[in-house]
Amino acid sequence: MDVVFWLVAYVLGFGLVQLLLYRYFQRDDPAPDATPSRVDTAAPASVDAGDPTGGGRCRECGTHNENDPAFVYCRQCGARLQ
Predict the structure, then answer these.
(1) Reported pTM
(2) Is the predicted pLDDT of residue 60 greater than 70, yes or no?
């Protein structure tokens, strides 16, 4: 009888630990609808495409990117730069 008690206690305890671990890790996982939306494409008034530092804006998301031949893709959305 003692072995049956420990077997049942082990199975229930193991299930409880698994449930607690599942709930702990599920809490940190964001829901699909909680993902951030795209970047606002409205450019600030102080920075435009003719930036004196030699940078430009992405046509897709409006993010300021440096005008360097080494950069082919936007650093924010990954769209191909001109």
Answers:
(1) 0.34
(2) yes
